[in-house]
Write a structure and sequence with these properties.
This protein is of the alpha+beta class. The chain has a single domain, classed as Nuclear Transport Factor 2, Chain: A, CATH 3.10.450.40. It has two helices and five strands. Strands 3-4-5 form a three-stranded antiparallel sheet, covered by helices on one side. A two-stranded antiparallel ribbon has the order 1-2. β4 and β5 form a beta hairpin. The chain is globular, with a radius of gyration of 17 Å. The chain starts with 19 loop residues before the first strand and ends with a strand.
Protein backbone atom coordinates (compact mmCIF):
# COMPACT_ATOMS: atom_id res chain seq x y z
CA UNK A 1 0.00 0.00 0.00
CA UNK A 2 1.36 3.43 -0.93
CA UNK A 3 1.46 6.21 1.61
CA UNK A 4 1.44 9.94 0.89
CA UNK A 5 4.68 10.73 2.67
CA UNK A 6 5.44 14.34 3.36
CA UNK A 7 8.89 15.31 2.14
CA UNK A 8 10.53 18.08 4.13
CA UNK A 9 12.97 20.45 2.46
CA UNK A 10 16.40 20.54 4.14
CA UNK A 11 16.01 24.33 4.33
CA UNK A 12 13.04 23.88 6.67
CA UNK A 13 15.12 21.88 9.16
CA UNK A 14 16.94 25.00 10.34
CA UNK A 15 14.16 27.21 11.78
CA UNK A 16 16.50 30.10 12.56
CA UNK A 17 17.87 30.38 9.00
CA UNK A 18 16.01 32.77 6.71
CA UNK A 19 15.26 31.58 3.17
CA UNK A 20 13.96 34.77 1.57
CA UNK A 21 11.92 37.94 2.10
CA UNK A 22 8.22 38.70 2.41
CA UNK A 23 6.24 40.74 -0.08
CA UNK A 24 5.12 43.51 0.28
CA UNK A 25 8.00 45.26 2.00
CA UNK A 26 7.01 47.21 5.08
CA UNK A 27 8.34 50.53 6.32
CA UNK A 28 9.37 49.32 9.77
CA UNK A 29 11.84 46.59 8.80
CA UNK A 30 11.88 47.07 5.04
CA UNK A 31 12.81 43.40 4.55
CA UNK A 32 11.04 40.81 6.71
CA UNK A 33 12.49 37.32 6.55
CA UNK A 34 10.73 34.10 5.56
CA UNK A 35 11.79 30.87 7.27
CA UNK A 36 9.90 28.11 5.41
CA UNK A 37 9.97 26.99 1.79
CA UNK A 38 6.15 26.97 1.70
CA UNK A 39 6.04 30.70 2.49
CA UNK A 40 8.89 31.49 0.12
CA UNK A 41 7.17 29.71 -2.77
CA UNK A 42 4.04 31.76 -2.08
CA UNK A 43 5.99 35.04 -2.16
CA UNK A 44 7.82 33.94 -5.31
CA UNK A 45 4.45 33.32 -7.00
CA UNK A 46 3.16 36.74 -5.92
CA UNK A 47 6.35 38.37 -7.20
CA UNK A 48 6.05 36.54 -10.53
CA UNK A 49 2.39 37.52 -11.02
CA UNK A 50 3.03 41.18 -10.20
CA UNK A 51 6.02 41.48 -12.55
CA UNK A 52 5.72 42.32 -16.23
CA UNK A 53 7.97 40.75 -18.89
CA UNK A 54 11.06 42.84 -19.66
CA UNK A 55 10.81 44.48 -16.23
CA UNK A 56 13.81 42.56 -14.88
CA UNK A 57 17.01 43.60 -16.59
CA UNK A 58 18.88 40.28 -16.66
CA UNK A 59 15.78 38.10 -16.94
CA UNK A 60 13.51 39.71 -19.56
CA UNK A 61 11.14 36.73 -19.84
CA UNK A 62 10.32 36.73 -16.11
CA UNK A 63 6.81 37.93 -15.25
CA UNK A 64 3.18 37.13 -15.95
CA UNK A 65 2.29 40.43 -17.65
CA UNK A 66 -1.11 40.74 -16.00
CA UNK A 67 -1.17 44.54 -15.90
CA UNK A 68 -1.35 44.65 -19.70
CA UNK A 69 -4.66 42.76 -19.48
CA UNK A 70 -6.28 45.70 -17.68
CA UNK A 71 -6.56 47.57 -20.96
CA UNK A 72 -8.51 44.79 -22.66
CA UNK A 73 -12.26 44.50 -22.49
CA UNK A 74 -13.19 42.64 -19.31
CA UNK A 75 -15.38 39.73 -20.43
CA UNK A 76 -15.47 35.95 -20.17
CA UNK A 77 -13.05 35.48 -23.08
CA UNK A 78 -10.48 37.67 -21.32
CA UNK A 79 -10.94 35.67 -18.11
CA UNK A 80 -10.45 32.39 -19.98
CA UNK A 81 -7.30 33.74 -21.66
CA UNK A 82 -5.90 34.90 -18.31
CA UNK A 83 -6.67 31.54 -16.69
CA UNK A 84 -4.95 29.63 -19.48
CA UNK A 85 -1.98 31.99 -19.39
CA UNK A 86 -1.59 31.65 -15.61
CA UNK A 87 -1.87 27.85 -15.74
CA UNK A 88 0.74 27.60 -18.50
CA UNK A 89 3.14 30.02 -16.81
CA UNK A 90 2.80 28.32 -13.42
CA UNK A 91 3.54 24.92 -14.98
CA UNK A 92 6.68 26.33 -16.62
CA UNK A 93 7.98 28.57 -13.83
CA UNK A 94 6.83 26.65 -10.74
CA UNK A 95 6.90 22.90 -11.46
CA UNK A 96 6.82 22.18 -7.72
CA UNK A 97 3.15 23.25 -7.42
CA UNK A 98 -0.17 22.07 -8.81
CA UNK A 99 -3.00 24.59 -9.13
CA UNK A 100 -6.19 23.16 -7.63
CA UNK A 101 -8.59 26.08 -8.15
CA UNK A 102 -8.31 29.28 -10.17
CA UNK A 103 -10.93 32.04 -10.13
CA UNK A 104 -10.75 35.39 -11.89
CA UNK A 105 -13.22 38.15 -11.14
CA UNK A 106 -13.15 41.41 -13.06
CA UNK A 107 -14.43 44.81 -12.09
CA UNK A 108 -14.77 46.96 -15.23
CA UNK A 109 -15.88 50.03 -13.25
CA UNK A 110 -12.63 50.05 -11.29
CA UNK A 111 -10.50 48.60 -14.11
CA UNK A 112 -9.26 45.79 -11.88
CA UNK A 113 -8.91 42.02 -11.93
CA UNK A 114 -9.07 39.83 -8.80
CA UNK A 115 -7.15 36.56 -9.03
CA UNK A 116 -7.79 33.84 -6.48
CA UNK A 117 -6.12 30.48 -6.75
CA UNK A 118 -5.26 27.60 -4.51
CA UNK A 119 -2.36 25.28 -5.08
CA UNK A 120 -0.71 22.21 -3.62
CA UNK A 121 3.00 21.75 -3.07
CA UNK A 122 3.84 18.46 -4.76
CA UNK A 123 6.68 17.39 -2.46
CA UNK A 124 5.08 18.13 0.89
CA UNK A 125 1.35 17.85 -0.03
CA UNK A 126 0.69 21.18 1.71
CA UNK A 127 -2.03 23.49 0.42
CA UNK A 128 -1.88 27.25 0.16
CA UNK A 129 -3.65 30.05 -1.69
CA UNK A 130 -2.93 33.43 -3.26
CA UNK A 131 -5.36 36.33 -3.62
CA UNK A 132 -4.27 39.28 -5.77
CA UNK A 133 -5.92 42.41 -7.06
CA UNK A 134 -4.38 43.93 -10.18
CA UNK A 135 -5.63 47.42 -10.93
CA UNK A 136 -4.74 50.43 -13.00
CA UNK A 137 -3.96 53.36 -10.75
Amino acid sequence: MAYGLKQISPLDLKPSTAIGVKIPFDAENVFSSVYTTKDQIKYNIINYLLTDPRERVFNPTFGAGLRARLFEQIDQQTFDDIKQSIRTQMENQFPQIEITTLDIIGSPDYNSINIKFSYRLLRSNENDSVILTIQNM
